[in-house]
């Protein structure tokens, strides 16, 4: 049977950006949004809580395949969908590794993939031990629920995450924190791939991501000076992760390029990712179209770049007064070559409300165009 209706759980901008390629391919897309008026409202068939089994089942029964805008749907609910014969892509067993950083580190270590030195810790004493053997500094992370750098602390003192230990104990579920070496890195990269249930994997060029205050600010595609060894290594690592974890759909692998030239896996996301927004204009097949193809088990599209360089800059926060659209006349007049994306979200400090992408032959010029266009939407 050829599947043709995709159901997306979560109504954020990632679901929103799946809508245009669905329209182009003539595929039906339905979104379960968590609140009225979200980014993907245009395709929303209802509002509902993704933590409620009945709500998710009722939604899933109206589609051919279920996929996601985020990783927060409880595994037990996803297993119930699978038990009822509803295709869930990525499936619950794979998704667990994007939901829980300890599971992810353990699995990647088992697969022999390069990760920072790490340990699971349950007390200040265990943190003290790790600090002693790792030069007195380390990074502690909550296993679940972190995003945009929340749930990540650089520490040099064994008691600096006592509040997290306490919260875990109070939660009743117990569990551990992840501690890892403070990696000395040259830059952060992201490698996106897509994988079909049949096993076909396709990789985009590796990109450089620039973070500010733990949030992705800018993406350069491809990563400068990555041709050859770095590009091949990044693609090999991400392909091994996708295959080893049985991921279906888009997989983003966030990587550190260390000062001594190694690549280490930091984070995984099993859905379209901020580091792939450039592909909407910059690649033959965007990450959003590829995600639809992959979860529908259709042949994947070509992933080469259309231009030598693409630079994507996030619009963070947005205008202090008014809407993004208020700034459109000036921004569009000044930057006719730049593509501007608004997510239909209310401006709020730090919030990702849109992005801009510029492409061309000259990296300095492309970066200038993208940064300068994004600046029209600040303050
Ligand atoms: P989140 O899930 O909140 O995005 P990440 O694990 O990606 O958290 O960490 C956020 C940022 O913190 C990373 O982009 C990186 O800049 C920094 N970071 C995370 N882990 C390490 C590490 N082991 N060494 C050095 N910096 C790190």
UniProtKB/TrEMBL annotation:
Q: Where do the ATP-grasp domain residues begin and end?
A: 105-296
- What GO CC terms are in its UniProt record? cytosol
Primary enzyme class: ligase
**What InterPro entries does this protein's entry cite?**
ATP-grasp, ATP-grasp_carboxylate-amine, ATP_grasp_subdomain_1, PreATP-grasp_dom_sf, PurK, PurK_C, PurT/PurK_preATP-grasp, Rudment_hybrid_motif
EC number(s) for this protein? 6.3.4.18
GO MF terms listed in the record are: 5-(carboxyamino)imidazole ribonucleotide synthase activity; ATP binding; metal ion binding; phosphoribosylaminoimidazole carboxylase activity
Q: Which domain of life is it from?
A: Bacteria
The reaction(s) catalysed by this protein are:
5-amino-1-(5-phospho-beta-D-ribosyl)imidazole + hydrogencarbonate + ATP = 5-carboxyamino-1-(5-phospho-D-ribosyl)imidazole + ADP + phosphate + 2 H(+)
PROSITE patterns from the UniProt entry: ATP_GRASP
Gene Ontology biological process terms in this record:
'de novo' IMP biosynthetic process
What Pfam families does UniProt report for this protein, alphabetically? ATP-grasp, PurK_C, RS_preATP-grasp-like
- Which amino acids does the record list as binding ATP? 101, 141, 180-183, 188, 266-267
SUPFAM superfamilies recorded = Glutathione synthetase ATP-binding domain-like, PreATP-grasp domain, Rudiment single hybrid motif
ATP-binding as UniProt keyword: yes
Query: Which pathway is it part of?
Result: Purine metabolism; IMP biosynthesis via de novo pathway; 5-amino-1-(5-phospho-D-ribosyl)imidazole-4-carboxylate from 5-amino-1-(5-phospho-D-ribosyl)imidazole (N5-CAIR route): step 1/2
Q: Which Gene3D superfamilies match?
A: 3.40.50.20, ATP-grasp fold, A domain (3.30.1490.20), ATP-grasp fold, B domain (3.30.470.20)
**Keyword annotations:** ATP-binding, Ligase, Nucleotide-binding, Purine biosynthesis
Q: How does it assemble?
A: Homodimer.
PANTHER family listed in its UniProt record? PHOSPHORIBOSYLAMINOIMIDAZOLE CARBOXYLASE (PTHR11609:SF5), PURINE BIOSYNTHESIS PROTEIN 6/7, PUR6/7 (PTHR11609)
Relate the protein's function as given in its record.
Answer: Catalyzes the ATP-dependent conversion of 5-aminoimidazole ribonucleotide (AIR) and HCO(3)(-) to N5-carboxyaminoimidazole ribonucleotide (N5-CAIR).
The record ties this protein, via NCBIfam families, to: PRK06019.1-5 (NF004679), PRK06019.1-6 (NF004680), purK (TIGR01161)
HAMAP family for the chain: PurK
Protein name listed in UniProt: N5-carboxyaminoimidazole ribonucleotide synthase
Supply the gene name.
purK
């Amino acid at each position: 049977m050829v599947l043709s209706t995709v159901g997306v759980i979560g109504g954020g901008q990632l679901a929103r950006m799946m809508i245009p390629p669905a329209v182009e391919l003539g595929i039906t897309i339905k979104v379960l949004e968590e609140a009225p008026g979200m980014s993907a409202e245009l395709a929303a068939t209802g509002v509902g809580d993704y933590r409620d089994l009945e709500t998710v089942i009722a939604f899933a029964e109206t589609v051919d395949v279920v996929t996601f805008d985020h990783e927060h749907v409880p595994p037990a609910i996803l297993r119930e969908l699978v038990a009822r014969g509803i295709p869930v892509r990525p499936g619950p067993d794979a998704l667990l590794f994007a939901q829980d950083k300890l599971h992810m580190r353990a699995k990647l270590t088992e697969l022999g993939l390069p990760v920072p030195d790490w340990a699971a810790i349950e007390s200040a004493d265990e943190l003290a031990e790790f600090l002693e053997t790792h030069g007195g500094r380390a990074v502690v992370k909550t296993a679940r629920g972190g995003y945009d750098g929340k749930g990540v602390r650089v520490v040099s003192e064994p008691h600096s995450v006592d509040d997290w230990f306490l919260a875990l104990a109070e939660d009743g579920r117990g569990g551990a924190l992840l501690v890892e070496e403070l990696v000395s890195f040259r830059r952060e990269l992201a490698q996106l791939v897509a994988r079909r249930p049949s096993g076909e994997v396709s990789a985009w060029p590796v990109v450089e991501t620039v973070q500010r205050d733990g949030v992705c600010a800018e993406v350069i595609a491809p990563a400068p000076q990555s041709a050859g060894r770095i590009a091949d290594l990044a693609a090999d690592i991400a392909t091994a992760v996708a295959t080893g974890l049985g991921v279906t759909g888009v997989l983003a692998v966030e990587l550190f390029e260390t000062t001594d030239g190694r690549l280490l896996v930091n984070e995984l996301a099993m859905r379209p990712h901020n580091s792939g927004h450039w592909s909407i204009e910059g690649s033959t097949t965007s990450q959003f179209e590829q995600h639809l193809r992959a979860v529908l088990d259709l042949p994947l599209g070509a992933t080469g770049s259309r231009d030598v360089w693409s630079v994507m800059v996030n619009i963070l926060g947005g205008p202090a007064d008014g809407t993004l659209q208020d700034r459109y006349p000036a921004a569009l007049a000044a930057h006719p070559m730049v593509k501007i994306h608004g997510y239909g979200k209310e401006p709020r400090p730090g919030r990702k409300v849109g992005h801009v992408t510029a492409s061309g032959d000259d990296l300095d010029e492309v970066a200038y165009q993208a940064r300068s266009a994004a600046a029209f939407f600040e303050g």
